[in-house]
Amino acid sequence: MQKGNLTSLHQNLLSDYENFVIGTVNESCLRLAVFTGTYPWHFHPDSDELFLVLEGELIIELHDKESIILAPNEYVTIPAGVLHRTRSKVRTVNLCFEHTDANTVFVEESNE
């Protein structure tokens, strides 16, 4: 058993992108991401992904649907197989719950 503090984990991170596992439970992990910018288009064939925003604004672009915009304390689950990418215009801190062995398949951008 190990106690942690989310604020202390991210308050001193200054780079445009940090993403790391902060804990595991059974076959799932909890990731902390701090970033500004755009992450590439991708999907997870066999794993859902739940995003929970702590700070900033997370935009989740979907290939064939309207983007989802999350403010602090808002969350959404992206089902397995859904093509998406995350981006932020301001420093954003979010948690991501996913399968520990989730496979990520990157997709090249087209006509953007």
Give a quick account of the main beta sheet: strands, pairing sense, barrel closure. Answer: 7 strands, antiparallel
General shape = globular
What's the helix count? 1
- How confident is the prediction overall: mean pLDDT? 95
Share of helix, binned: under 10%
Task: State the separation between the terminal residues, measured CA to CA.
Answer: 46 Å
The secondary structure category is mainly beta
Radius of gyration: 14 Å
Number of strands: 9
Order of helices and strands: HEEEEEEEEE
Strand % is over 45%
Domain Cupin type-2: 38-88
GO molecular function: manganese ion binding
Protein name: Cupin type-2 domain-containing protein
Organism: Paenibacillus ferrarius
